[in-house]
Amino acid sequence: MSDQSTVFTRLPETDDEREDPERATRAEVLDFWQDRFGVPPDTFEGYTFWERGAGKLWLYQGSPPSPVDIEGLGMTVLRTRQEHWKPTLEAVQRFGDRASKNVIHLDEDAARAFVAGEDQERDWDGDWGYLVVTHDLAGGTEPVGVGLYVYGELRSQVPKGRRREV
Predict the structure, then answer these.
(1) If I label 85, which of 38, 52, 135, 157 is the partner at 20 to 30 A Cα–Cα?
(2) Is CATH 2.30.130.60 the right assignment for the domain spanning 102-162?
């Protein structure tokens, strides 16, 4: 078997099934999405959560055998094993439309700056930390990415390779 950085192992369902106390459980992941963003747990019905390396969580629709030694499995969804769990851009774009908390909506100019990777001073009366950032697109409100709000500033968390001048 390859080193642990390439092996995906399925998250335990609950704390009772957890062998590594640092490892997240499915229940904790569902609680995180619900508590932080108001995303209902049933949003992830039919999906399994997998860890590769230390705290890099992936989401897969289905259930292959565990462990599995492959390069990728579904999509990255969350970074754990750090002080504050961080959702990925892909997860927010896929599931952020279900968010009802810690969502900041940007107008056109602010959204352009955000997707270009620019940080911006903003007023926000909600919680500090990671936010779902939305913008009006094609007649509806769509999640465009993850922002980090601290000290009156919305910091773009759009990865450098995904930033765009639009």
Answers:
(1) 135
(2) yes
